[in-house]
Amino acid sequence: MAPLALQPAPPGPLSSAQAAFGRVWWAACAALAWVAGSAAQLGMAALWAPAPVAGIAALGVLLVLLGLRGRCTRWALAALAALALGAAALGFASTHARAAAQLAEALPPALEGQDLLVRGTVASLPRESLQGVRFEFAIEAAWHRGQPVVVPDRVSLGWFRGIETDALLSAPPQPVRAGQRWQFTVRLAQPHGAMNPHGFDLELWLFEQGLRATGSVRERPGQAEGAARLLDAAAAHPVERLRQAVRDAIQARVADPGAAGVLAALAVGDQAAIARDDWALFRDTGVAHLMSISGLHVTMFAWLAGAVVGALWRRHPSAPRWLPAPVAGRWAGLVLAAAYALLAGWGVPAQRTVAMIAVVVLLRQAGRRWPLAGVLGAAGLVVLVADPWAMLMPGFWLSFVAVGLLAASGPLQASSTQAGRWPWLRAAFVQQAVATVGLAPLSLLFFQQLSVVGFAANLVAIPVVTLIVTPLALLGVLLPPLWSLAAGVVHLLGAGLAWLAATPLAVWHAAAAPPWAVAAGLLGAVVAVLPWPWRLRLLAVPLMLPLLAPPVARPAHGGFELVGADVGQGTAVLLRTARHALVFDAGAAWSPGSDAGDRVLVPLLRAVGVARIDRLVLSHRDTDHTGGAASLARALPVAALMSSLEPGHPLRALAPHTPCTAGQRWHWDGVDFEILHPPAAALAAASERTRANTLSCVLRVQAAHGASVLLTGDIEAAQEAALVRDAGSSLPSTVLWVPHHGSNTSSTADFIAAVAPRVAVVQAAHRSRFGHPAPAVMGRYAAAGVPVLTSAACGAWRWHSETATGRCTRQERRRYWHHPGEPGSEPSRRVPGPEIASPRCRPGPAGESVPCPSMSR
């Protein structure tokens, strides 16, 4: 009889083993229900009022009590259902209460952008760059115009050099270090990040980290009142101070910055120390998981520490006999592994591993052994109870699924029964194959890419990093010369990885797959790694194919799809026809090594299935329009480039170049393209003193059924007047890309009347430092009856010519942790326009993780 009485009570009492199994089963069901309740809460667009949540919590408690009371009765099945529902309700209510508490700490809107005098401590490792330094700051007190104000306890601050808004910023008077207490003037804002389909959710990450505001230090040269003052060099956060001391020592000892970054990441978890190009190499070769503190590193450290302590315990004559050496070793391994995880920043993989080690140690201490699946489940529950939002992070699933797949395949258990050394080597080979195949669907799901050379790279990198580099990085804290030896190993490993990455087809890129393809791919991975006969395992191939090469939805012949990416202060538009792709401008370059092309456009294009850019149009030379072009051309082939760039400009060498001049036309898949500006004479007469805005390429695109869009670059009032005069009949368009991001220099009433758009779109940053879009400009569009969408409120905007329907990513992906929004965005609207000949309206394809493209700030 099963340990759960699903029928009338059994005739005799249950054995102790049956009772124990029954308790474990019920506890597992309650834990899964709790997690399900938390997951349901994470899908909320907005939080509820406290009263209904309190009612759900009370109901949950009642159901749990009823379930526990009925466990050993004939109504056990109903009791189990009550227990599960109660646990789900409690998980939902608990997560909701914690979310509400975090949102209550949000920065008051009235304090956004105001000069605030704050005092507090540097609570994290500062991340330095050419522009300045960024760090987490724990605020102890804050004042506005001499009056105390309430602000979030922890914020993310940048201290930058150069000019920003109306203040001349200067470098910190002395290096910013963890644990220091400072007093300075800051400007804060509520968290707001780019919102692109399948893009990184910065606002979620900040919410999970407990950072309820972002901002910058306002240090003006010669400033007296509110000037930055270092109050205490070592006021708080001793662990962070130790991490910084180790990182600084590594950077001082190791001359190669790339190797120093890897050693700092492995020793103290400072992943920001690894250069962008190095991260790209590690991702392309599938070894990125080794370059941050993962479960593998923590487990290895715990095993080594436990073995050393156990050996010393046996040999030490004064060691207490009541505590056996194996027990001392286990507890020492747990304590030292937790210390290492804290030193490494206490990331999710480290948390998961420490939780697993703790469960194992406690079970062994109690004289019990759980299967690995039970240990993994208990560790996962501990992590999710502490941090429910972790289940939205790719790292959480990659960590747990990796261990689960290895446990399900069981290669080591099968090999451990065989004699000799080779079976263990074979088992290690099989484990790597299991991890590669099993994690492939998750890699494609989260990142739309798969390292083809990852299997070979990990065969070498795993033992090198875990058994050589990481121990040397940690031992270097005691013997610094070991860091130089570790750096040499890292250099050799990097050379080998670079050789692998240079092989043809080293990385497989795939479009974002529909849900059914994702489900099939995940099932295929499980089938591939389970210890089943090969005849059954071969079923994994057809199951995984749709995820490796998913179907890509494209516009019908004669129509086009437009995606205004969320790139903050800048312009970047993707336009697709049935068989062609055009990119109009490439967004801004934010800093050396960081631009909209690499961070936003490349992931977006790959996610929607664009493998080649047929034409890249750069409207003019300003960096908020061309900053991402080089990264875009490095990542994807560009067949042709069209621009108003002057001869000799380095970007003209990216692809075969044609100057854009009024009158140029071409026809793709039933869609007409026409350049309306600049005139050939103006382009020929341009000099270095000519304002780049005046030469902006203006492109009009019209579908076969008449719907159209006008992309205007940064033209100003004089160019608008010339277009009205010389090309007035070509201007009317369904959608207008507002000139110059909504600047006062553009969008004259005559131009708006000539275009007569049904909707206008502004691409500008949230709280733009240039004041875009200008209130006067918004007033002119309102007077003309033209609705205006802003990328700051809408995120990426996707528009389909066939249906004249646009969708905002920020509204479609809305969750309670996102910025509350601002006027100027409608989640979905039908734009009145010319009659559409298509007999039916079809929903547009989904974007990069959700529909509608997105931009990056």
Structure description:
By secondary structure, this protein is an alpha+beta fold. A 9-stranded mixed sheet has the order 20-19-18-15-14-13-28-29-30. β24, α24 (717-726) and β25 form a beta-alpha-beta unit. α11 (372-386) runs antiparallel to α12 (394-409).
Task: Describe the secondary structure blueprint for this structure.
Elements lengths: L15 H27 L7 H20 L6 H28 L12 E7 L4 E2 L3 E13 L2 E2 L5 E7 L1 E3 L2 E3 L11 E9 L12 H7 L5 E4 L11 E4 L5 H16 L3 H12 L7 H9 L10 H21 L9 H19 L4 H18 L6 H15 L7 H16 L1 H6 L5 H26 L1 E3 L2 H22 L5 H21 L5 E3 L5 H15 L4 H4 L2 H9 L12 E4 L7 E5 L4 E6 L2 E3 L2 E2 H12 L7 E4 L4 H4 L2 H7 L5 E3 L13 E3 L5 E4 L2 E7 L2 H5 L13 E5 L5 E4 L5 H10 L8 E3 L11 H7 L3 E4 L12 H9 L4 E3 H4 L2 E4 L4 E4 H4 L15 E3 L27
Parallel strand pairs: 5-9, 15-18, 18-19, 19-20, 24-25, 25-26, 26-27
Antiparallel strand pairs: 1-3, 1-8, 2-3, 3-4, 3-5, 6-7, 8-9, 8-10, 11-12, 13-14, 13-28, 14-15, 16-17, 21-22, 22-23, 23-24, 28-29, 29-30
Based on helices, strands and strand pairing, what is the structural class? alpha+beta
Main beta sheet: 9 strands, mixed
Number of H/I helices: 28
CA radius of gyration is 30 Å
Question: What does this entry show, briefly?
Answer:
This protein has 857 residues and is of the alpha+beta class. 44% of the residues lie in helices and 15% in strands.
